[in-house]
């Protein structure tokens, strides 16, 4: 009869720190979140956060792993792919402070920028490759779609260009969808 190995206390401490960090980064953003506040939220001493994660940057990198939750484009006719992704972008990014904090930090922090590249290459790249049936240009297509998604997110959510912020979901699909469509199927 096999016996269950009890979870180590360090595992539960790490989990508590990550949960508190995700909540704090989401609520306060990267710049305003502090190690002390995260430790207080996790009900531990701040030195424990530093022991397990080293610094705020490394903690953020560990806490900010996220899923873009991209739709499977193969479920739709190819003529709708751009519109589907444009709508998804607005639905996914509107109000998600963790994604916004991640975008803000990735512009100035190489480690987070590398993580952003990995997330987009892995997740968006896989969706584009699957939808295109293994098209030889799938990687370039995914890179170009990423450039548009990140540029749109930067201008709408971070820099807050009024003309981009004012677009409702339907306007985003109408204006932005064809550009994404061209990169996916053009």
Care to describe what's here?
- It contains 10 helices and no strands.
- It has 186 residues and is mostly helical.
- It has 2 domains: 9-63, Arc Repressor Mutant, subunit A, CATH 1.10.10.60; 73-185, no CATH class.
- The longest helix is centred in the N-terminal third of the chain and has 24 residues, at 9-32.
Please sum up the structure shown:
This protein has 186 residues and is mostly helical.
Summarize the helices and strands and which ones pair or pack.
Layout: H1 9-32, H2 35-42, H3 46-53, H4 56-63, H5 81-93, H6 97-106, H7 110-131, H8 138-158, H9 162-165, H10 169-185
Structural class by sheet pairing and helices: mainly alpha
Number of strands: 0
Instruction: State the end-to-end distance.
Output: 60 Å
- List the total number of helices: 10
The fraction of residues assigned to DSSP E strands is: under 5%
Helicity range: over 70%
Largest sheet, strands/sense/barrel: none
Low-pLDDT stretches are: none
Domain count, please report it. Answer: 2
Question: For this entry, what is the oligomeric state of its chains?
Answer: single chain
Overall outline: elongated
Q: What's the Cα radius of gyration?
A: 19 Å
Mean pLDDT: 88
Order of helices and strands: HHHHHHHHHH
